[in-house]
Write a structure and sequence with these properties.
- The complex is a heterodimer.
- Chain A is α/β, with parallel strands linked by helices.
- Chain A contains eight helices and nine strands.
- The mean pLDDT of chain A is 88.
- By secondary structure, chain B is an all-alpha fold.
- In chain B, 74% of the residues lie in helices and 0% in strands.
- Classes of the chains: A alpha/beta, B mainly alpha.
- At the A-B interface, strand 1 and helix 2 of A face helix 1 of B.
Chain lengths: 238, 253
């Protein structure tokens, strides 16, 4: 087994529920342990509200744990988010630069990739128009084209695998799969079993902010679905 | 890493100014027109209606307001910047000084435009350039440090206590009157005046007026004290932002 680059030991994360003095905190993550090695492709499953997004943001270093231990080798993590930091009145080109800088690229890197972004986003002359004139689909295309330029050590994906119309979905999905197949370390949160099976070589099941099972994809998915059916049956029986 | 952040701040400032221009019909003209209207209001009320002050009152007021508005606009824009960027902060890991710094830089660019206009007005009304203009650069740099310090501190606290937004404008209004922007503080008893001089704005505006109106070198000792206060507050601001950063992402959406 190779050395872990991100390791969580009994990690808990609490949020403030309201802006009130003395308002209780709620624990989005209660007790999560996992270890991520270089080249791992981990799928995270669980019901809505089980803490999957919080987990991704904790791995990304955006959220610091309130208890437990998080150790991270000096690696770059990117939470794949589209239209990051976009400003409505600026052109697509300026927004691409701005977003690229926020994602950690140097200006000359992002400028040298502008032709690729223009090409991939298929925006044509709209690229130099303010993005306030874009449709949602165009925004997503621009956002994805910028986000895919970053080559992080660890790529964190929250549901979005493909964006835009059918044709662009095909293209963006393919680009991302190529990136993943290229040996990136990936953490992928999804409700789709098929996608997890296709992409991941390991899975983690989260329940109420706790890591329940971590292992081979089929095993974890089977256990997760069994538990879901059992709780559905219990609800129906009650 | 550092260079990357400087690039991010500079480009974001450009984006901010550019977007601001696009948000109104008159665009850049508002950089000048808005402060000019503000100055005209004070001039009308205090010089024309109440007939306040000495014959030098108009340059006295214009210099004070120019330096004050720089401070005030940085706080009103930069002070809310982290709070306004919370959705972004939940998405990406960035050093949060970036956000107030961008606003400070954007407002400083606007301030420099107004400063040029102020100088032209002064030259045309009988206050020509003089050798003490050399001291203008250090005075402005010290004010920049103080402005940044105050903005960082406000920016650090507002996300945790958004209620402050309702208080800040009022406090700024009071501080303006206490800083001798509109009224001269010379009429105060000396003991009280000494307390007022702890306020960096008072010394900085005094220095600015001395240079621009009376060809007078600043009181370097007083400026040294202001520099010290500003640097301490600046360090406090940076410390607060860094210290509180983990808490911002955990605030309710």
């Amino acid at each position: 087994m190779s050395e872990s680059i991100v390791r969580l030991e009994n990690v808990g994360v609490a949020f403030n529920a309201q802006l009130r003095v003395g308002s209780p905190r709620f624990w989005a993550l209660e007790d999560v342990s996992l270890s991520l090695a270089r080249g791992d492709r981990l799928g995270v499953v669980g019901r809505n509200g089980c803490g999957k997004s919080t987990l991704l943001r904790t791995i990304a270093g955006i959220i610091t744990p309130d208890r437990g231990r998080l150790t991270r080798a000096p690696v770059s993590c990117q939470l794949l988010s589209l239209t990051l930091g976009f400003v409505p009145h600026l052109s697509g080109r300026d927004n691409a630069v701005l977003s690229g800088l926020m994602l950690g690229l140097r200006r000359r890197e992002i400028v040298s990739r502008l032709p690729a972004i223009l090409d991939f986003s298929e925006l044509g002359e709209f690229f130099d128009q303010p993005i306030s004139s874009y449709s949602t689909g165009m925004l997503m295309r621009l956002g994805f084209s910028v986000a895919i330029q970053v080559d992080p050590d660890v790529l964190l994906i929250d549901e979005v695998l493909a964006v835009g119309d059918a044709e662009f979905q095909e293209k963006s999905g393919a680009a991302l799969r190529a990136r993943i197949a290229g040996g990136s370390t990936v953490v992928f949160v999804s409700h789709g079993d098929a996608q997890i099976r296709q992409i991941c070589d390991r899975a983690l099941w989260l329940e109420h902010g706790r890591s329940m099972l971590d292992g081979p994809v089929d095993e974890v998915l089977a256990a997760y679905h069994a538990a879901q059916q059992a709780s559905a049956a219990a609800t129906a029986g009650a | 890493m550092r260079l990357h952040l400087i690039e991010l701040i500079l480009f974001s400032t450009y984006a901010e100014l550019r977007a601001e221009r696009a948000r109104s019909y008159l665009g850049l003209l508002w950089w000048i027109v808005e402060p000019a209207m503000n100055m005209a209001t004070y001039y009308l009320v205090f010089a024309v209606i109440f007939k306040t002050g000495a014959p030098d009152y108009v340059p006295f007021l214009l210099i004070g307001l120019t330096l004050w508005q720089w401070f005030k606009s940085c706080i009103s824009h930069g002070g809310y910047s982290i709070w306004q960027q919370l959705p972004l902060i939940r998405q990406v890991k960035l050093p949060l000084q970036v956000f107030p710094s961008v606003q400070i830089l954007a407002d400083t660019v606007k301030f420099l435009c107004i400063l040029v206009l102020l100088l032209v007005i002064l030259w045309c009304s009988g206050y020509p350039p003089n050798i003490t203009y050399l001291a203008l650069l250090p005075v402005l740099l010290i004010e920049l440090v103080f402005v940044a310090a105050a903005t960082y501190i406000v920016a650090a606290v507002v996300p945790l206590v958004p209620d402050l937004r309702f208080v800040i404008e009022q406090v700024l209004q009071v501080v303006m009157f206490l800083s001798g922007i509109v009224f001269s503080l010379d009429g105060l008893p000396p003991t009280l005046r000494r307390w007022f001089a702890l306020n960096p704005i008072v010394e900085l505006v005094d220095a600015g007026r001395g240079i621009l109106m009376h060809a007078q070198w600043p009181d370097w000792y007083a400026l040294g004290r202001v520099t010290l206060i500003s640097l301490v507050l600046y360090a406090l601001g940076v410390f607060l932002i860094e210290r509180l950063t983990p808490r911002y992402v955990k605030l309710p959406t």
